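Supplementary Text 2. Reproducibility record for the structural model of the 175-residue chain.

All settings were left at their defaults, and a single model was retained for analysis rather than an ensemble. We include the record here because the model underlies the residue-level annotations in Supplementary Table 4.
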Amino acid sequence: MPRLPVLPLEQMPEKTRNMITGGKSGLSGLNINKMIAHAENSARHFMRLGNSLLTQAELDERVRELVILRIATLCRSYYEWYQHEILARKVGVPEEQIAAVKEGPDSPVFNALEKAALRYTEEVTLNVKSSDETFNEVAKHLNHRELVELTLTIGFYNLVARFLENTEVQIETSK
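Retained model, structure tokens:
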């Protein structure tokens, strides 16, 4: 059971409800967004940042999804894993990589960029700051924009995992 109830759509301001449902009647939206909607002044900004990282970033979407799945594993966030396992498949992450991400960055199924990004993710998630060695390794593969997007993605999805685990948001039973 969630620690808080999700906010019913009919109790939300129209702008928030439209962001959650995409402005389409009949859609219920994700439970995480309906839980975040309790914080009205932050909810739309949270969703905008998440959306920008998912849809407007230059960072390779497969790398992004591997990173998010690694965060979900490290933070033991089942909801985050569930949602992003679906997205990982949609963007073409192979099944063997989805399985291997649970073990860490050293699997031979990952290329040099993926290994570096996963190591960076682990260090930032577990230690807050990465080592210079790990940062420099990932920086060999990414331009400045991509590095910033990767770091923002790691920070954002660590926030998401902590929010999900502390409010105990439940997976949607229907979409």
